[in-house]
Records
---
Amino acid sequence: MIRHNPNKLDVLGMSASLICAVHCAAIPLFFSFGSAYMADLLHHPVFEVGFLLIAIVVAVWSLGKSYLNHHQDRRPLIVGVIGVVLVTFGVVLHSWFITLPGGLVLALAHFWNLKLLKSCTCRLRTA
């Protein structure tokens, strides 16, 4: 039995997804408090696409690697794909109420993947 170290990519993925969710929740708050400049800055396409690219790279690398080399459980991978699709639609449609749940779903996928890795009794594949 191999003891797996905590997957730092899942921790990064959860953190990035939660930061993305907080970012999406902050935009309407800034508008409601009258700080349109700050809301406009946070809603800039560079931030939006940057978060999206980071989420996709980390999710593919972390969830895919764990699925292929360790636990072979598709559920976190499927939940991760759903999260990435929601975040992508939210960014494309400029809709925080689609992106926010997408970020939370993606964080859940990373959390689930981390739990599976901690309880994994697999043999590490090197191929």
---
Amino acid sequence: MKWIRLGGGAGLALALAATGLAAQDSSDEPLYTVLNPTGIAPVIERSAMAPRPDSLDGRTIYLVDVTFNGGDLFLQEMQKWMAVHMPDVKTEFRIKRGIYTADDPELWREIQSVGGMMVMAIGH
């Protein structure tokens, strides 16, 4: 049996051995070094939160649903509550195109065009 030096990638070494790609037991065969392919995560740069307005009066808040189970029901109840308790705030219910990670430039332009704000119900 040929020895394989592990550089943190034990799973890859086992895969090499199982597929027969590991060197056979022979003195003229090279010694394989297996490195961990996951790499090192980059440093995360922190960003400040968006500035918050002093008041929501006169503003438009978009309630955006991404079609996750029941998100639409929650947002519609939120819209009813806001109509009663925050009458000076306009709400717009919208369903975003695609899954929650997909871009919806048309919707974002609409929200920006009225200087609106957004609450997105993504579930969980």
---
Amino acid sequence: MTQTQPQTATPIDPGAADLAAAAARAAAARKAEDVCVYDLHVVSSFCDAFIVCHGTNRRQVTAIAQGVIDDLRARGVRPTGVEGMEAGRWVLIDFGEIIVHVFDEPMRGFYDLDGLWGDAPRIAVDLTPPSAAAPA
């Protein structure tokens, strides 16, 4: 009888991880709160990562979402879909391999994506803007 080796999870695609980190930094640069990046590639087939964050009011939620779209567009990446921008309560930005969720604070608690995907590992991202991270 042969023993099988336990399977190890394959690491997230480096391009998806880089895109997720860029989206998280873009959100943090617009003062998004509690920015979390979840590695979903081993628990889901529809995307590699979720970015979940919130703003303190609807105007900030739309500014965060637009900032993420603008920053990733500057990298040559366009969203395949954007939902909720008009209402500013929960903006979902689908970039294919990553999905960004920008909530207002009450909606984040109500939908609790952090609890729903809490079993997925988090990706550590340095949210310091590149220009601020370099010594002067």
---
Amino acid sequence: MQHHYTEPGDEVLVNNVLAYTIGFWNGLFTCYDAPYVPRTNNDHERFFRQTKTKHRRMTGRRSWNDYILRSGEFVVFVDDALRQPHLIERLQKVDYDTFNKERNRWNDRLLEGTKRRRFRKDPESYLNNIENKVSELIGQS
């Protein structure tokens, strides 16, 4: 704004807008930086509803909470990305180290969910398994 509004009378307007927007958090206007992120609340609702409806058709389940927990909070972006043009070209721009780092982070996240489900299913067996692994590590040292 400071570069576009340079007239002497514009200073009050620029200062007022800057003072008003200084408290906005950095991710608030992501939709202007990333063209595939919906801009309005109605667009967001439609965006999420597409993935939710697709999941409901596949599984027959109304709730998609487990789907989000298993697949991650960005599952709607992945689903939408498959419909976007030039996806292959965009993916080819990602270097291998970045991909590998993200894949490891994803696998760690999935492993945490697996651990939680195993613990909820049979806490005693889960804890016994951990104790055995720790005992093996202590025995090796």
